[in-house]
Amino acid sequence: MPENNILPFRQSDDPNTRDVIIQAEDLYISRADRNLLSGVSFAITQPGITTLLGPNGAGKSLILRLIAGLMMADSGRLSIVPSISNSLALVFQTPVVLRRSVHANLNHALKIYGTPKSERVGRIAELLVLADLTSLAQTPAKRLSGGEKQRLAMARALAARPKLLLLDEPTASLDPHATAAIERLTRSAAASGTKVILVTHDRMQAERMADDVLLVHRGRIAEHTPATQFFEAPTSEEGRTFLTGQILL
Amino acid sequence: MQDLWGSFQAAFALIVQMDADLAEIVLLSLQVTTAAVLIACLLGFPLGALLAVGRFPGRAILSVLTNATMGLPPVVVGLLVYLMLSQSGPFAVLNLLYTPTAMIIAQVILVTPIVAALTAQVVEDLNVEYDDLLRVMGASRLQTVTTLLWDARASLMTAALAGFGRAFAEVGAVMIVGGNINHVTRVMTTAIALETSKGALALALALGIVLLMISILINASLMALRSSTRTTAHA
Fold it and tell me: What mean pLDDT value characterizes chain B?
């Protein structure tokens, strides 16, 4: 079994299931006698934006970290189409930027992704325009505001033209203006064919962004439905409680 | 008191007139210590990074050894290097005893653990912040280490300057392996010891003042570096 517990997944020829790119079966994670994930199973299809929605501590970020290969489940099976697992990027809730200029951050990412030196200058210029950071290109990244750092993190994630973009509550600590910029970048990535999995606890954001919703509650998948259905008539008790604005404990 | 004041006056005169002996001793001291610190950095930076992010058998033992040898007694290091290079030692054929090279070797042994241990601490802290990002990006081990070392460059300069301070002020090891030979291996610390024992306080004081000024300069550079790091927010 690979170090990160992710198994290669062969896409089905069946028209009903051939768009499935990630399949989780009965994932369990427990720490200190507490079940963080309890029998999590789901199938994520492409294209579009899948939202992992749920209250804090539900296990959303854990699922994202499993998909990213940053941790292993105690048991269960997680399969990802190899062409997807080899081409993913992750944006963290708290943006991690290197101690270099904005330009150098992007150059570093492209270098790691193996982009030839001759192509880097042009690609960096594109990414700076995309993230509206051109005027800040030579600014030390650590000096940027929270929103600018997150835009840089998005630009860096998109530098490799990933097939799967994982977003772990990227707007949790941003103001509405910065949030709108991140959502614009996310939509743009999804429109260009990148599959997006967005973790959020913000119901309104999920409603704005999601094509389908995975509602996570207490380490379980409470329901997985198309977004229109979820926001009109959720199938689970947890979904109804969440949408009425009551605290989901 | 009159003698002391006279010694100070004579010492300042030697510094102002750029006395040839004084300049030669200061220059050799700087050459030996700079070479030793550069070599210690070449060894200590990668070793520290390896200790910080590497996962290999014996890492814990190596880490303990590195930390333990940070405070090696200089005279013991001098004695060991002497035994290695002396006529009965395994490296006698190199004819390095009582040469500046022997002094550099001794200082490298003293400084490398300091640079490595400080590097390991800095890189380990930075790796906590960067680890997930670099793993998701698919960075190789070499790319991870070079990224961490480059981004920790301001702190690594601090480690190098700490090593420089240690080597520059050290007397025991260079005295044993260098022999304090005039115009060959006489450096500031050994010259101060010798001139003081001879009662030639003017040159000893002049050297002491220069040594103190260089130490102050090193510390001032350190503070300036930290301040510039905060200003540019690169670290």
Answer: 89
Q: The pTM is what? A: 0.82
Q: What is the per-residue pLDDT across B119-167, written as a single tens digit (0 to 9) for each?
A: 999 999 999 999 999 999 999 999 999 999 999 988 898 899 889 988 9
In this structure, the number of other CB atoms found within 10 A of the CB of residue B7 comes to 17
- Are B147 and A98 in contact (CB < 8 Å)? yes
CATH code for the domain of B90? 1.10.3720.10
The pLDDT, as a whole number, for residue B48 is: 95
Candidates A85, A98, A101, A143: best to mutate against B (most CBs of B within 10 A) is: A98
* Residue B11 counted as domain residue: no
Angle of helix B153-168 versus helix B141-151 axis, rounded to 10: 70
DSSP state of A140: B
In this complex, is the C-beta atom of A68 within 8 Å of any C-beta atom belonging to chain B? Answer: yes
Decide if B151 touches A, using CB distance below 8 A: yes
What ipTM goes with this model? Answer: 0.85
Give SS3 for B99. coil
Cβ separation A112–B129 shorter than 8 A: no
CA distance A231 to chain B (A): 33
Helix axis angle for B141-151 and A102-112, nearest 10°, is: 170
Residue B121 near chain A (CB below 8 Å)? no
In a domain, B193, yes or no: yes
- Decide if B136 is inside a domain: yes
Please report whether residue B46 resides in a domain.
yes
The parent domain of residue B94 ranges over: 20-234
When pLDDT is cut at 50, 70 and 90, the band that residue A107 belongs to is very high
Count: domains in chain B: 1
